[in-house]
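Section handout 9: paired folding examples.
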Amino acid sequence: MTGEDWAAIRLSVQVATCAVLAGLPLAVGLGYALARLPAAARGAVETLVNLPLVLPPVVTGYLLLVLLGRNGPIGSTLERWMGVRLVFTWQGAALASAVMAFPLMVRAARLAFQSVDGRLELAARGLGAGRLDAFFTVALPLAWRGVIAGGVLGFARSLGEFGATIVLAGNIAGETRTIPLAVYSQMHRREGMEQAWPLVAVSIVLAIASLAIGEFLERAQELR
């Protein structure tokens, strides 16, 4: 393993962690709202949320680039008023990963909250708890395993993100080159196929560990 490989691993973990930290709170709120809505009412919202799962990742990255680029409606505002630039930065890679992982986190949160008996929240409300109090003292403690499972799956998805990341953040060694981008770069070098094996092995280990943790937490949530 070269220093460039270790840099890609560190950056991948950093990007995936930030993607989950940024996306999970919103995913929990949206998952809770969807769990409490009638099935007929949540169809349109779930369709929008799940679009990154069915769109080609490059298309998602293109849309993000249009919005967040220097001439985009969001990107130009951020750069003009806050001095923040997301294109070709690791923060942009984290944002792209968060968008791609968001549907998985929302789905896990929704299923977790659907497993919580709504009558318990109603009982808490009847005892004087507000809506937020009932959420934080009843619903979330009972659904936390499923929520964490969603975060773990989002982390694994972020580790493997390629298409949207390369469009929005580029493939800059030491700055935006995550594990998938490093493997892609190795494949275009002489003898790169052999040199890419350590990163491939690390990716497999991280993916298996994440899936195992997520499956364990989901089963624990179902048993509860």
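Moving on to protein 2 of 2.
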Amino acid sequence: MTLRSSVCYFSNSARLAVCILLGAGFFLFVTHHAAYSAPSTVDSVSSEAKNLSKEQLEQEILNRSQRLDEINKQLSETKDNLKVTQTQRASLQKEIKNLESSISTLQLSIKGDTLSVEKLSLEIERLQFDITDIQETLVRKRDGIESTLRAMQKNQDDGLLTLLLRSDSLADSVFRVQSISHVQNQLSVDMETLRDLQAQYTEKLNAISGKKGQIVQHKKDLENKKYIVEDQKQTQQRVLKQTKNQETLYTQQLTKLQKEQQDIASEIELLDATLRAKIDPNGLPTAGHGVLAFPLAGGKSLMTQDYGSTSFAQYGYRGKWHNGVDLRSPVGTSIAAADSGIVVATGDQDKYCYRGAYGRFIVIQHSNGLTTLYAHLSKIAVSKGETVSRGQTIGYVGSTGYATGPHLHFTVFSSPTFSMGGSKTCGPMPHGGDLNPLNYL
């Protein structure tokens, strides 16, 4: 405090710059301590990566990026083939082929997640090099500023009049004043550089934090996809056991199943139609793009069935009404919450009516008067009562319930009309006044 007051008391020509610099003393203190408190890299970084040079890390990152591109290209081709597969006539061989395709796609996706974790870990290690460079520059710059400030403090203690009297000539006096002014200007530049370095330092730390979060999510996806692979294998074995690998037996079972599906669809539509009439428009958010986020990356381009009285609904459902939109994607694709909210229901209707209704589903109630339903999942990744954030992974695409192939069925309800009711054959059933999702996506 004494240093600041003594310097700020003297010459008007130097006072402003020096006072600004000394007033930033707390900033220098924080910078000094930040420079020595860099976090260690993420635990998952391999010991081999820690021993690599920055150039070697760059090459390893490039290698994994190229391999990821190859995997993503194959996954993209799988998505394109889904639409064609779903239009093919239902048969035992088609179902077995679809299950085999799902398992292969999942295993490919697992490789992708593994590579992503490795790549992110390498990127964190590379960022550590950048942080070390910034730390060293911060220390040098801080020490230089502190040294200059001490020299300026000595000059300022003498005062402008004393400085002039000590000079041998007027020219010498002008030179001394100009020198002090130059130092002040350089200090201002150095201080701005210091602030830029601090901003870069913070940016690198935030980047590390973000990549750590991505690693955590990829690891969760890995574990969940391994579970889904086993689930698909079990489904395959169940189909083969029930049909004894005979096409005629499968056709008989399919005919019976289709009748059950029609009965269940009629039950759902009978109640939902009544609830649609009870929707209060005043309780709904203003329609518009982005009110809800698309639950699958790729958005509308993935849509295979629209909302309402679609062509499929005309013959696929007795009620001739589709209460949501269908988005095709391979089994195991991550599903994101369309908005923040509370999970009000989850369930697996295949336990009550195998392949008869929504299969595995999630329902989230949002604060804007809307409630969203996500159906036909291969795995549920949240629990009832849990609070979720917009974009958070809540589950994975599947083909459980009444589904002709892997896809996400997405419904938007008016929250006041929504309820979980019982059904005649399918256990707990989501009901509500449905709205066109495309009005909000």
